[in-house]
Amino acid sequence: MDLISKIEALFLRRGGQRYCGERDEPVSALAHALQCAQLAEWADADHHLVVAALLHDLGQLMDAAPGEALRDDQHELRALPLLASGFGLTVLEPIRLHVQARRYLLSADARHAQDLTPASPMSGEEKLLFMTRPFAREALQLRRWDELARQPGKRTPPLAYYLGMMQELLRAQRTNKRLAIA
After folding, report:
1. Is the distance from CB of 69 to CB of 25 less than 8 angstroms?
2. Alpha-carbon dihedral sign for residues 21, 26, 31, 32
3. Ordered DSSP codes for 91-104
């Protein structure tokens, strides 16, 4: 089974479960992922970041049993080995950093200061170190879309649309690797 088929299978098998982000959300995991990807696309993000937006919570789907609430502890890391079999750092790093980006926003943005979830804000030194990381800005943008992508009943393109985008991205990466060798 290829990477895109595995991703599709996870979304089809477990994406209908209620998404549990910082609070009990009124949308499914798949609806959340599609809304996040749509927001990235509307912001004219490149396809790497749109794909990262779609896949940022895939790790939650990997451990959830049917009917079980999706878990949030270190979900940003769980799917990385699977995703690394096809995608590069432009997709992987914003996903890996999106939880840390939340901590950054808790400390840097007044709208997040009243957040009642257990995440702790970053110290000034942690914020500086975070911003020196490659893809920190992309992770912050992904986090902002993540927080907006929780609207019940919102219309989005179907999963197949974004799977096609992933296929094109993987094909382009394979072509670029071949050209780099030549």
Report:
1. no
2. negative
3. HHHHHHHHHHHHHH
Q: What does residue 24 show for φ and ψ, rounded to 5 degrees?
A: -70, 110
Question: Which tokens go with 117?
Answer: 């979830």
Give the residues across from 68 on adjacent strands.
none
**Token representation of residue 61:** 């789907």
Q: From first to last of its 182 residues, what are the pLDDT tens digits of the chain?
A: 799 999 999 999 989 888 766 566 789 999 999 999 999 999 999 999 999 999 999 998 886 555 555 455 677 788 999 999 999 999 999 999 998 898 889 887 656 545 545 568 888 888 889 899 999 999 999 999 999 999 999 999 999 999 999 999 998 887 766 555 54
Single-letter amino acid, residue 160: A
**pTM (predicted TM-score):** 0.85
At position 158, the amino acid (one-letter code) is P
Tokens of 123: 């110290």
Angle at the Cα of 181 from the Cα atoms of 180 and 182, rounded to 5 degrees: 95
